[in-house]
Amino acid sequence: MKTGPLNESELEWLDDTLATHGSEKSVLDVSELDGMLTAILSAPHETEPADWLLAVWGGAEAVPRWRNERERDRFINLTLQHMNDIAERLSDYPDQFEPLFGTREEEGQILTIVEEWCFGYMRGVALADWSGLPDAKQQALDAIALHGTEENFARLDNFTAEEFIDSIEKIAPAALSLFDYWTAHPKAAVMKQPVRNDAKIGRNDPCPCGSGKKYKNCCQQ
């Protein structure tokens, strides 16, 4: 697998693949994927790749019917490469960490769109136990949730332009602060319940997580 940041065409390919195979339950674009991966890397305990790859698509029942193995493998490899690049920036080069926000042109101006990234971050938060944050760090998470949960939309509608810009500028520092906190205060990983081997999935069948491995060598373990 390659290392380093993805180039523009690779990011566009990931974006197109998410849009093609996605549903209302899944991550829909590369900005949301970037936010989700950032939260997974910042979590108080590790989430297994088989679990978060399922979460990208919204569950085992929503895993794509890939056109071929090459498409599936390229998606997984590019996602892991991008995740490794985020991890390196968070841990070793925080001054180079930059959320992959979207953009939109409106009346000749390029606007920054943060909602998808923040929704993805909160999707990643839901995969781990983030309880027990001290007040200062909870405020950091709230700064991301402000743009990443639907119940806050009405509140954002009442922001002045200055307040809205200020809220956007708090997102990246909040993500770095949360990464630093959980790195210094990790929790024990939640023990997974054994996966039942019923008639629906054979031991030698492809794993429903989309990893490309046989079920017995992946999520059954």
UniProtKB/TrEMBL annotation:
SUPFAM superfamilies assigned to the protein according to its UniProt record, in alphabetical order: Sec-C motif (SSF103642), YgfB-like (SSF101327)
Alphabetized InterPro entries for the sequence: SEC_C_motif, YgfB-like, YgfB-like_sf
Highest rank taxon of the organism: Bacteria
UniProt-recorded name of the protein: YecA family protein
Organism: Trabulsiella guamensis ATCC 49490
